[in-house]
Amino acid sequence: MLIDWNDRLVLGDARIDQEHQDLVTFINRFFDALTNGAPRDEVCGAAFTLAEQVTQHFNSEVYLMEALHYGARAAHQREHKALMGELGGFLRRVGQEDDRELLKVAVFIKDWFTTHVTTADAQFVGFLQDEVSHEDASEEISLAEMC
Ligand SMILES: [Fe+2]
Ligand SMILES: [Fe+2]
């Protein structure tokens, strides 16, 4: 196991936390396949599945950011695109690289993920929570106006 799911990674939005927890599982599966001496096609399969899951998760965050006109969405998306660029290059080489190189990639993904979740994603979840509390407040006002 490369990453432990821990409180530092819990941001307080149930859906985003669940998706992050799933990504931790896929990062660990890739790492475990690599370090347990699994056949190369299994390692490649784990890498491709991880990249697919990352893409889906990024799409769901970006969808929310666009829908809510999140101010820092361009900078946030730049971080996502930087990782996708790295992953794309990595997937093209994954069949040929030796285990040492693949381990470096796994550690790079882990570091990228933990940094991004605890900074950019934490900021976005803070924004989401503010949005929800404002919505609650405006619902209270409109209910009060109706009575
Ligand atoms: Fe995220
Ligand atoms: Fe993100």
Question: Can you give a write-up of this model?
Answer:
The longest helix has 48 residues, at 99-146. The chain has a single domain (11-146), classed as Hemerythrin-like (Four Helix Bundle (Hemerythrin (Met), subunit A), Up-down Bundle). It has helices spanning 14-35, 40-67, 73-93, 99-146. With 147 residues, it is mostly helical. The mean pLDDT is 92. The structure holds fe (ii) ion (FE2) (2 copies). One fe (ii) ion (FE2) binds next to helix 3 and helix 4.
The backbone outline, from C-alpha atoms, is elongated
Q: How many domains is the backbone divided into?
A: 1
Poorly predicted spans: none
* CATH-scheme architecture: Up-down Bundle
SSE inventory with pairings:
Layout: H1 14-35, H2 40-67, H3 73-93, H4 99-146
Helix pairs in contact: 1-2, 1-4, 2-3, 3-4
The chain binds fe (ii) ion (2 copies).
Descriptive terms for the model:
single chain, 147 residues, mainly alpha, Four Helix Bundle (Hemerythrin (Met), subunit A), elongated, binds fe (ii) ion
In short:
The protein has one domain (11-146): Hemerythrin-like (Four Helix Bundle (Hemerythrin (Met), subunit A)). By secondary structure, the chain is an all-alpha fold.
